[in-house]
Structures are given as structure tokens and as C-alpha cells.
């Protein structure tokens, strides 16, 4: 069941993006100008995939604010406003609210509240079911609140332990039609191996390429991961590759850069 997306929300990189949170300091700091060019190409990829893109201005005081996916989880019936786990990102969700209210009425908006934490990078939609990572960024209380909100809209949830990486979708993404890319620890995840999915194990050297995003007839992926590209081609998708080098330096992936609905 392919999703029919019509809109995406992105936020421009700030000059302060060079100081974004990173678990890979050995990759160096992002180049701001190159990050902007890569972001431009990402926006063009979204448009090619058939969505109208709302481009929000940069927030200089929030180095990681380009990663809008962690501010909210948008479902076909409503939106859950996240509560990011790190203090430096806590206000990003609140700053997204005016834009969300352009598309959703108040009765379609729910909030994750203290002491819950939830980041959209930990949420993977599989039709009417949502996998939620239990990670350093999303806690049990955040999962409980999220489950309560989604049950109102007729959706179900399932928690997945995330031990060694930042977010659930860092380690693999569902590209619909039953097809799931997995890397690292998720190659042995029992919940992904119970017959629900056609699983492709991404080679360890291409683990970063496991985070892709399906939008209408297209899959957008990071450039430079040939095994992932070959599998997506074999599954019959139209593929768009975009350079992600600067966002990778601050733990960002393809899905992180947009909210899609």
C-alpha cells in the first residue's frame, strides 16, 4: 500500500549547522555552503516525487533544526508534536507548531509532554502500524503517550529496542510494498523477521544508505551506496540519489530532513 503524499516541510540549514550534535566527530564539521547546495537538491528531489514543499527559514540558535523530522510525527489523521530529548533541540518542536497549524486543526494535534521524550527519527510507519524505537532519544513514557494518541486515530504501535545507533530509522527504513531495508543490529531484530517483510540486509560498509524515504512512486536515497541502489532497482522503484555528506557529519539521514504528509 503506497502512501500518497502531497506536502513536505523542510527547514533551511543555519550557519550554526557546523555545530550540530554528532556521534562521528572524525568526519569533521559540515561545510555550510555545501550543506545548502545539498539541501537545495533534496528539495528538488521532493518536488520530483510529486509533493509541494514548504520551506521554512533557518533557525540560527538551533544547529540541528534542519532535521525537522524530529519535531513531529504526521499521520493521515493527525499530528503528534514531539518532545526532543536533548536540551539544545527541545524548543524546535514548539517552533514548528505555527506551520503545523496551517495544515491541521487543533483537534488533530496531540503533544508529547514531560517526562516523555519522542523524536520522529524513531518512528517508522508501516501502513496503519507504527514501529517506535526505544532509544537514547525516545523513552518509554514517550512511547506510552504516542500509543495513546495514535489509538484515538485507529492506529497501533510496537516498540523496538535501539541499542547502538541514534534513531530507529538510522538502522533501516520501510519503503512500502512489504519491503524493508535493515542494517547493523536490526539484521537480527526478531520483529523484522516474523514474515511481515521482504528484508534486504544492507552491507555493513553501506549502513548509512539504509535510511531512504519512499514518496509516492519514488525512493530518495543517499548517493554512493550501490548495493542499496541495486536492491531498490530490483524492487522496481524510481530512485533519486542525493548527496548527503554534510548532513551525515551531524548524524542526519535522508528521512531526517523533511516532514511528509
Automatic annotation (TrEMBL):
GO terms for biological process: arginine metabolic process; citrulline metabolic process; positive regulation of nitric oxide biosynthetic process. The keyword Aminoacyl-tRNA synthetase does not apply. The active site is at residues 167, 256. Gene3D superfamilies: L-arginine/glycine Amidinotransferase, Chain A. Pfam families: DDAH_eukar. SUPFAM superfamilies: Pentein. InterPro entries: DDAH-like (IPR033199). Keywords: Hydrolase. One of its GO terms (molecular function) is dimethylargininase activity. It comes from the Bacteria. Belongs to the DDAH family. This is N(G),N(G)-dimethylarginine dimethylaminohydrolase. It comes from Candidatus Coprovicinus avistercoris.
